[in-house]
TrEMBL record:
Residues 197-409 form the Aminoacyl-transfer RNA synthetases class-II family profile domain. The gene is glyQS. Homodimer. The keyword Calcium does not apply. It comes from Draconibacterium sediminis. This is Glycine--tRNA ligase. It comes from the Bacteria. One of its GO terms (cellular component) is cytoplasm. One of its GO terms (molecular function) is bis(5'-nucleosyl)-tetraphosphatase (asymmetrical) activity. The keyword NADP does not apply. InterPro entries: aa-tRNA-synt_IIb, aa-tRNA-synth_II, aa-tRNA-synth_II/BPL/LPL, Anticodon-bd, Anticodon-bd_dom_sf, Gly-tRNA_synthase/POLG2, Gly_tRNA_ligase_bac, GlyRS-like_core. Catalyzes the attachment of glycine to tRNA(Gly). GO terms for biological process: diadenosine tetraphosphate biosynthetic process; glycyl-tRNA aminoacylation.
Length: 511
């Protein structure tokens, strides 16, 4: 099945099973804003717990914070967001659709890459075992021609971004013959800068009210609390502050479900280090974060690092962790070496000293910062994309979400075979015993087969069926979602069997 079709099905599945709803749907929706339903909120909470505990529990020198969304407006001036948090936008005059010029060009780069990969895949199939990919890439004329186009475009693109040359961005779009996917035309406007921050008014009277911003990243809340946390927590450098919270960006193009939203959630950690040691820490955090992703078991080949074409105004190194979504490799997380830019700016704008006295060096300095920043919603999409499966069975097909059990919203469904003979009561007893440890669901409607399918669709890893034998010998059938195998086990053993599979501790063991 084409990847776009899979993605469409996945979006429909998220709605049908209570994972994600369009915001304000009964009023025809609000662009790029989504609500999480009864299943979605559980999955989201589990993702957040995986991240939070991996940061705060597993690192003695990382502590948490929950700062407010509203902040003093000068913070955004100091951070550079008022002047430079822009995206280059371009409109197609025929379709009236708006695009990000940089994304149009990135898609063009991806097209060249795809062409090369197709040639390689074709040749690999033809030559079988004896295929030498490196040699093929270095000698095949079609691959070489596309590689040259990629190189030229990449260089031009990086230069244009670094020089903030909007006219050149437009020229690239024209020279590459990039068309609007809706109208198919090349009738483009000029490229303009567009600030992504939402603003609102704080205060009751028109004269007294001041303009404030909805934060476009959670990081600044951490920077402005650096001194508070360092002092009250008696933190010694190196140390980190982790935070999960909402962020808001007035995204120009927001057409990829929860991949790009106007209101979203971030999990960010700022790690404060000695100046000069930041690039070593940058490498360490790159490795740590990649391990965190891979531990979920979605396949190492589906992740890669992507170096930035243009470094943000505050960074001296930056890399993205990309995951292979149904629509290609895309950023899930950014890891940035932010230098001492933010703290120095806040020193300057607030007039307060933001320093660390390093007893080992016997001197004070503004710490350098390495940041890891991941979107909860993008992570959610990664988990759902990796887990969604349509399986051909002997007689029919089943849709199953093969979620890592530790993240699954419902861990266990308990089903009485029939609605009589004391079986529902027995099933309730099991739930009453296990509900303190696991999210359980009671299900007695429809045939067992239908109930299994329903649980497969929401990704429940274990189904337990209570039958007449259960009343006699206190055993039940446990059915495993992925293999569909069933076995008879003692009710008394259920907690242990399930507990082992859904344990965060086991997952953390892989980090
Ligand atoms: P992009 O290039 O995709 O716009 P970015 O590089 O601006 O993203 P960062 O500022 O590095 O993103 O933000 C860190 C993380 O926050 C991203 O890796 C992503 O997971 C998440 N994120 C950023 N913008 C959005 C958004 N509009 N919707 C959902 N998640 C987002």
């Amino acid at each position: 099945m084409a990847q776009e079709d899979i993605f469409k099905k996945l979006v429909a599945h998220c709605k049908e099973y209570g994972y994600v709803f369009q915001s304000s749907e009964i009023y025809d929706g609000l662009g790029a804003v989504y609500d999480y339903g009864q299943m979605g909120v559980e999955l989201k909470n589990n993702i957040k717990k995986y991240w939070w505990d991996s940061m705060v529990l597993l690192h003695e020198n990382v502590v948490g914070l929950d700062s407010a969304i509203f902040m003093h407006p000068t913070i955004w001036k100091a951070s550079g967001h008022v002047d430079a948090f822009n995206d280059p936008l371009i409109d197609n005059k025929d379709s009236k659709k708006r695009y990000r010029a940089d994304v149009l060009i990135e898609d063009q780069l991806a097209k060249y890459e795809e062409k090369m990969n197709k040639e390689v895949a074709k040749a690999a199939k033809r030559f079988g075992e004896s295929f030498d990919e490196k040699q093929f890439r270095e000698t095949n004329p079609r691959v070489l021609a596309n590689q040259e186009k990629w190189n030229n475009l990449h260089t031009r693109f990086s230069n244009a971004l670094n020089d903030n040359d909007l006219a050149e961005l437009k020229q690239i779009i024209e020279d590459e013959g990039i068309v609007c996917p809706i109208s198919g035309s090349r009738n483009w406007t000029d490229v303009r800068q567009f600030n992504l921050m939402f603003s609102t008014e704080m205060g009751s009277t028109a004269e007294g009210a001041s303009k404030i911003f909805l934060r476009p990243e959670t990081a600044q809340g951490i920077f402005v609390n650096y001194l508070n946390v360092q002092k009250t927590g008696r933190m010694k450098i190196p140390f980190g502050i982790a935070q999960i919270g909402k962020a808001f960006r007035n995204e120009i193009v927001a057409r990829q479900f929860i991949f790009r939203m106007r209101e979203f959630e971030q999990m960010e950690m700022q790690f404060f280090v000695r100046p000069g040691s930041e690039l070593d820490w940058f490498e360490k955090w790159k490795e740590t974060r990649m391990k965190w992703h891979r531990a979920l078991g979605f396949g190492d080949e589906n992740y890669r690092f992507h170096e930035h074409e243009k470094l943000a105004h505050y960074a001296n190194a930056a890399v993205d962790v990309e995951y292979k979504f149904p629509f290609g490799f895309k950023e899930v997380e950014g890891i940035h070496s932010r230098t001492d830019f933010d703290l120095s700016q806040h020193e300057q704008y607030s007039g307060k000293k933001i320093r660390y006295y390093d007893p080992e060096l016997g001197e004070s300095y503004v710490p350098f910062v390495v940041e890891t920043s991941i979107g909860v919603d993008r992570m959610f999409l990664q988990v759902i994309s990796a887990s969604y499966c349509e399986e051909q069975l002997e007689k029919d097909t089943r849709v199953v979400l093969k979620l890592p059990p530790v993240l699954a919203p419902v861990k266990l469904a308990v089903m009485p075979l029939v609605k009589k003979d004391g079986l529902p009561e027995k099933a309730r007893e099991i739930i009453d015993e296990l509900k303190f440890d696991f999210n359980c669901q009671y299900d007695e409607k429809d045939s067992i087969g239908k109930r299994y399918r329903r649980q497969d669709a929401i990704g429940t890893p274990f189904c337990v069926t209570v039958d007449h034998q259960s009343a006699e010998d206190n055993t039940v059938t446990i059915r495993y979602r992925d293999t569909m195998e069933q076995e008879r086990v003692a009710i008394a053993d259920l907690g242990k069997i399930i507990g082992e599979q859904v344990s965060y501790k086991k997952l953390f063991g892989k980090l």
